[in-house]
Specification:
The structure is a homodimer. Chain A is an alpha/beta fold. Chain A contains twelve helices and twelve strands. In chain A, strands 2-1-3-4-5-11 form a six-stranded parallel β-sheet, with helices on both faces. In chain A, strands 7-6-8-9-10-12 form a six-stranded mixed β-sheet, sandwiched between helices. In chain A, helix 1 packs across helix 3. Chain A is elongated and about 85 Å long. At the A-B interface, helix 4, helix 5, strand 2, helix 6 and helix 7 of A face helix 4, helix 5, strand 2, helix 6 and helix 11 of B. Chain A binds a DNA duplex through helix 2 and helix 4.
Chain lengths: 333, 333
DNA sequence: GCAGCATTTGCACACGCTTGCAAAAAGCGC
DNA sequence: GCGCTTTTTGCAAGCGTGTGCAAATGCTGC
């Protein structure tokens, strides 16, 4: 390392002609300092370019101001949108985000949580994967807060934020039926995350209530290519589906592109499609996809207010509704 | 705050029946500990769920392991891809990423850098905006490393990583001319960042060498909608362009969608389009956009190796080439 | 000027860790 | 066993900050 030499409170104190405690107090809202000395301190700090050392402050206050965001596939539209909202709200709350990228294994989530502990993060938000119970217990025992987004599995202690995927899926069935569709299909990936599976199961259950069967096809990881592959499989069946619910907008985009360009199907005339997430691309005029919008802003707001509230925070479970935004990939509406 | 109570090295020492220094050394690679005690320590740590406090370690070692990533518009495809690569490489190098979201103002970049100083980040990587020189000087003086990506303005001290935008732009002109295009246009946003302007100017200059004029249209911020608006303006001219270089893939997507769906133009038969960035959507079969791929992996690797190399790091300037990936929005090739 | 009170200030300890230094232990050759 | 060298260990100081406590200062009303 090169010689590192940040200016410390001592130097500021010396320059301002006060004690070091005065400096500390000048930077602590509500501390007991006269306006006169506070000004002297602030000016000296300004001149020297002093910034409070948050490592040391965190050590003393036992509160680092750091919140870990644990997520895989950051570069995905929905994930990055959620990330944007979270960091934004965190910054507004005076916290700072530490970003940890995981692969799709649960092991890497465990490692990420350990990193969160090492930096004494005030809280961790888990957007992907599911950590071992022993690790989450360790976090909670250490007084670190935990937010699980769309992770389903309920344990007391953390804040759980989930969408009502089953209810959404049921609405899709209704819309398809109303559009006169009879051959329903569900396009999914093999990721098997709680929310994806809930959508699938909710869709099948609601269809059955209408006396309809559902063809399910799953492939790979939840992305554009998977959508194309699944389209390949679904659209070559003798009984070609006339309505497809895609577990994800990304899947839907791949699916629609394949349907149009390889199978020359027109949407929604010959094929209705609904997605989930309302990523930006869903509104592009090549897609105009009818889909459910994830309330990312609400999710972020709820998460941040919960994890930054003072006192001990009770574990809670929050279920939000996803709004169906109607565009043009489904007849009627 | 709830009662926070992380297990400390003392507790581990006590359980393992050794001194606190031994615990510290057991967690310091290359420190002087016998294998026997190290094992005792590691086991005790395991049992208690101990994790080294990196705030305290950072305080002592004068090296926090934190690297700040300063970026606006995280949710944008290119930015999030770069972010993914950076966090990935940082983690491989044993660092951890602190993510700071800025709006498009330079002021917010300054604030972000101050935050980086507060957490005593080992380095900061700036992906958007340009901080005041006084702040960057403060960073350097404090021994914090700085990486500026596509920020152009050269100052000694930081590592600068730039693309050869002008050269790329010249290649586009060549390709357009070879495709028989004569009415060239450039679609840009009003953001005016160095790389966007370099592409614009390089394009104009290269066209002039071929004796061709360029119509330039700029609108709003660099996104999909801007591309649509710019298309509106360019495609209603009496002399309709037959080749458009879009400063960004996102612009190109909006542009193409407008060209096709509102103006019923076919690409590349009636209109050639080239983008920049090679975002994922550029390869989607609705676009199949010919574009330049940003070497995000190389950028991330170079940045991380530079900022984590020991000794004092000389400021450097690195110029990379963007590869032209040929798809189907330009005739010939 | 003085007693009585509220406000401000500095001292010193604590936070959890690393590391130089000297003492203790271990290994080695005889 | 003894002197020697090498390895391991514990002590204690220090990193930069926050904060309780007691001393000091300022203010008020007489």
């Amino acid at each position: 390392m090169s010689q590192r030499d940040f200016v410390s409170a001592d130097e500021v104190a010396q320059r301002a002609g006060v004690s070091r405690s005065a400096v500390s107090r000048a930077f602590t809202p509500g501390a007991s300092v006269s306006e006169a000395t506070r000004q002297k301190v602030l000016q000296a700090a300004e001149e020297l370019g002093y910034q409070v050392n948050h490592l040391a402050r965190g050590l003393m206050r036992n509160e680092s101001g750091i919140v870990c965001l644990i997520v895989s596939d950051v570069a995905t539209p929905y994930r990055s949108a959620l990330l944007r909202e979270l960091t934004l709200h965190l910054q507004l709350a005076g916290k700072v985000a530490m970003l940890i990228n995981t692969d799709r294994s649960d092991g890497s989530v465990n490692k990420a949580l350990q990193q969160a502990i090492r930096y004494r993060a005030d809280a961790s938000v888990i957007l992907s994967g599911l950590p071992d119970k022993s690790i989450t217990q360790l976090c909670l025992r250490s007084g670190q807060r935990l937010v699980l987004i769309n992770r389903d599995e309920d344990q007391s202690g953390p804040l759980h934020i989930n969408l009502d995927d089953r209810e959404a899926a049921a609405r899709v069935v209704t819309a398809f039926v109303r559009a006169g569709c009879t051959r329903l299909a569900f396009a999914n990936s093999e990721a098997g995350t709680p929310s994806l599976m809930a959508r699938e199961q909710g869709f099948i259950a609601a269809a059955r209530e209408q006396g309809l069967d559902v063809v399910v096809e799953r492939h790979g990881w939840t992305g554009y290519e998977a959508g194309q592959i699944v389209a390949q499989r679904l659209l070559t069946r003798k009984e070609r589906p006339d309505a497809v619910f895609c577990a994800t907008d990304l899947l839907a985009c791949g699916f629609m592109d394949a349907a149009r360009h390889q199978f020359s199907l027109s949407i929604p005339q010959q094929l209705c499609v609904v997605g989930f997430d309302d990523i930006e691309q869903a509104s592009w005029s090549s897609y105009r996809l009818t889909t459910f919008s994830q309330p990312v802003t609400v999710i972020a707001r709820e998460a941040v207010t919960w994890l930054s509230e003072s006192g001990i925070a009770e574990g809670r479970s929050l279920t939000l509704q996803a709004d169906l935004v109607w565009r043009e990939t489904i007849r009627g509406g």
